[in-house]
Amino acid sequence: MEMSENNVEFKEPGRLTTWIKYLLYVQVALALIAIGSNLMEYQLLTDFQNGVYFNQEMAVADAESNDKRQQIIAFSYLAVFIISGILILKWIYQSNQNARYLGAKDMTFTPAWSIGFYFIPIVSLWKPYQAMKEIWQASQNPNNWQLEKAGPILGIWWFFWIANSVVGQVVFRMSRRAQEISEIMNVNLVSQVSEVLSIPLAIVTWLLINNISNMQKAQIEGDVEKAETAEDSDLQPAK
User: Fold this and answer.
1) Is the Cα dihedral 92, 98, 100, 104 positive or negative?
2) Dihedral sign (CA 153, 161, 92, 82)
3) How far is the C-alpha of 144 from the C-alpha of 148, rounded, in Å?
4) Which conformational region is residue 51 in: left (phi greater than 0), alpha (psi within -120 to 50 degrees), or beta?
5) Cα-only R_g, the chain
6) At a CB cut-off of 8 Å and minimum separation 6, what does 156 contact?
7) Alpha carbon 82 to chain centroid distance?
8) Which tens digits make up the pLDDT trace of 145-190?
9) Buried-exposed string 15-39: b where 16+ CB fall within 10 A, e elsewhere
């Protein structure tokens, strides 16, 4: 098997992808919980706006209860998002290295830059997609990866990533200015859009990771099979 210039070893993605899968499942579950919690908050805000509460103490108690519930969900989601994000970046780095080990030459993106572009403004709008596309191509056909076409799931994944990121920024900016009940209700509605988008994003992210990992495993297993076949033929007595 041809080694890369860096002489790195192939890293089996199985354990890493399993952790990512479970964390993405948790993300989906938390997103559904957050949607339900936001609906409850929206109803509470509607009651405040319509003057349903006649007892101030009860209104304050319900507001505090709502805030605590929302904070717990938000912190839980943030923790899972950060952990899964770190593991996904690790997977991207590892997948880039694996593609090189499998024989892919002249790749534009190094393992480090394939994750580094996520943190650079402006270029983060397209460079991470290009890096992932290159990993897909090199995983599908390491020897002639430039000729391969990217799977349609890549475009779907990037659409939901950009959409969710944009809506998340809108929520952040709106929440900083929101003071009136009507403004907080608008933040609530946009937050629900973000949570809805995060569900297909998590699903498509897992499908993308699983597809690339399976392609790389098929490549390495094929090379091992070829090596074993060659070894068996060498052991056969000469006629």
Assistant:
1) negative
2) negative
3) 7
4) left
5) 24
6) 204
7) 10
8) 999 998 899 999 999 999 999 999 999 999 999 889 999 999 999 9
9) ebbeebbebbebbbebbebbbebbe
Contact indicator for 45, 184 with CB cutoff of 8 Å: yes
Determine the Cα–Cα distance for residues 199 and 204; give it in Å rounded to an integer: 9
- What is the phi-psi region of residue 27: left when phi exceeds 0, alpha when psi lies from -120 to 50, beta otherwise? alpha
pTM of this structure: 0.87
Q: Which residues contact 213 (CB under 8 A, 6 or more apart)?
A: 13, 14, 17, 91, 95
Q: Do 194 and 168 contact (CB within 8 A), yes or no?
A: yes
Q: Which helix (H) or strand (E) holds 138?
A: helix 127-140
More confident residue, 229 or 199: 199
